[in-house]
Each structure stands twice: as structure tokens, then as C-alpha cells.
Amino acid sequence: DAGITQSPRHKVTETGTPVTLRCHQTENHRYMYWYRQDPGHGLRLIHYSYGVKDTDKGEVSDGYSVSRSKTEDFLLTLESATSSQTSVYFCAISDSSTDTQYFGPGTRLTVL
Amino acid sequence: QQQVKQSPQSLIVQKGGISIINCAYENTAFDYFPWYQQFPGKGPALLIAIRPDVSEKKEGRFTISFNKSAKQFSLHIMDSQPGDSATYFCAPSGNEKLTFGTGTRLTIIP
């Protein structure tokens, strides 16, 4: 899986609680991305990073924040989880020299 | 705003047949046209991709056909096998950001 790990792999939480998902890479790639995958929507970009401390919003960023303090780690935070954020979350990385993105194994998040 | 339209939503093909999945896009700034394959419980993985300077690319049983004027590209899987059963996504890209289609669930039956 191209040296990408995500943690946790599964999480069940309650509405209103904060949640942080972690993506860790060992490839030293510049770009990192967070997507959510929902039936009928494909994968939608939440936030992405183009370097340490450099991040930008994607298509569905409301309710999410990110941080990247080291090249290898990209954190996704749900400040106050809602049921609409129940989804499978994928992290991806990319070498800026190509457009190919390599995906992690995913985190299944359930918000009750 | 739906920038990428993928069809069909699901497809059943007999083993040995040809599977064809289509993708139409609106953004003329896209300059990279990949197809990703996803198995249940796994993340998507790049299957094959094309740049707009060529109209066709073949890798083994997989072929991308690209029509720039129609803003469409398609994936052809020849001699489809049960192991090809998966969900396929087109994901045209510009500026290192992919825009995913909604996916096609392909089932190959014996």
C-alpha cells in the first residue's frame, strides 16, 4: 500500500465528540490528501496538503480541519462529529512529479 | 456541479467478454485521465492513465480511449476475468487534484 498507514482503521463515536484520524507515510511525498467515500458519490476531496504547514480546502471541507506539522503525518479532525460524517475516510499521497495518487487502507467512521 | 459523469453505474459481463466504462467531463483544464480500481475493503489503486496528447493507451487487457473534442474517455477491459470484478472510478485531474466519478461496479460472471 505504498507505505501509507491510517489509524484508527475503525471508530465508533457519538455525535458532538471530537475525532482525529491520522495518516502516516514513509514515502516522503510532498502531497497528501483526505477523501471521504459514500455510496453514490465516489470519493470527494476534503482537504489536501502541498507541504508542511501548507494546506487547502477541497470540495467538502465544512466541519473538518487538518494539520501537517511533519512531512510524514497528515491529521484530519472533526471538531464536533455529526451523523452526516459517518463515512469511509481515505488518505492519499502523491509525488509532485506525476499525478498518480496512492491510497491508504481507509478508516471506517460511524457517528451515532 | 457535476464535473465528471461516469456510466454505467453497474455492469455485468460474462467471462471472456469486453467490459466498457465511460467517463464524460466538463473541465477543459484537466490534463491527466486515470482509471482507478477498488476492491471491497481496500483503497483505490491506479489501473491505467492517459495524457491528452494521445488518443489511446493499451496495457495488457486494459485500454483507455480518449476523445478530447467530445471531452470523454473510456476504459475497455478485454477478455474480462472474475478477478476484474471490482469498482472502477474515472478521476480526471488538473493541478494534482483528482475529481472522481461516482464509480462503476463491475461483476464478471462465469
How would you portray this structure in words?
The complex is a heterodimer of chains A (112) and B (110). Chain A is an all-beta fold and 112 residues long. Chain A has no helices and eleven strands. The radius of gyration of chain A is 13 Å and the shape is globular. The termini of chain A are far apart. Helices cover 0% and strands 54% of the residues of chain B. Chain B is built from no helices and twelve strands. Chain B has strands at residues 4-7, 10-14, 19-25, 33-38, 45-50, 56-59, 62-67, 72-77, 86-90, 93-94, 97-98, 104-109. In chain B, the strands form three sheets. In chain B, strands 1-3-8-7-6 form a five-stranded antiparallel sheet, with no helix packed on it. In chain B, strands 2-12-9-4-5 form a five-stranded mixed sheet, with no helix packed on it. Chain B has a two-stranded antiparallel sheet with strand order 10-11. In chain B, a hairpin with a 2-residue loop joins strand 6 and strand 7 (62-67). The radius of gyration of chain B is 13 Å and the shape is globular. Chain A binds chain B through residues 1, 31, 35, 40-45, 48, 50, 58, 90, 92, 94, 96, 99-106, and chain B through 6, 32, 34, 41-46, 49, 89, 91, 93, 96-98, 100-103.
List the helices and strands and how they pair.
The complex is a heterodimer of chains A (112) and B (110).
Chain A: E1 4-7, E2 10-13, E3 19-25, E4 31-38, E5 42-51, E6 54-57, E7 64-70, E8 73-78, E9 87-94, E10 101-103, E11 107-111
Parallel strand pairs in A: 2-11
Antiparallel strand pairs in A: 1-3, 3-8, 4-5, 4-9, 5-6, 7-8, 9-10, 9-11
Chain B: E1 4-7, E2 10-14, E3 19-25, E4 33-38, E5 45-50, E6 56-59, E7 62-67, E8 72-77, E9 86-90, E10 93-94, E11 97-98, E12 104-109
Parallel strand pairs in B: 2-12
Antiparallel strand pairs in B: 1-3, 3-8, 4-5, 4-9, 6-7, 7-8, 9-12, 10-11
Report the end-to-end length of chain A measured between terminal Cα atoms. 30 Å
Mean pLDDT across residues of chain B: 94
The percent range for helix content of chain A is under 10%
Shape of chain B: globular
User: Largest interface, and how many residues on either side?
Assistant: A-B, 24 and 20 residues
Characterize the biggest β-sheet of chain B.
5 strands, antiparallel
Rg of chain A, rounded, reads: 13 Å
- Total DSSP helices of chain A: 0
**Multimerization status:** heterodimer
Outline the biggest β-sheet of chain A: 7 strands, mixed
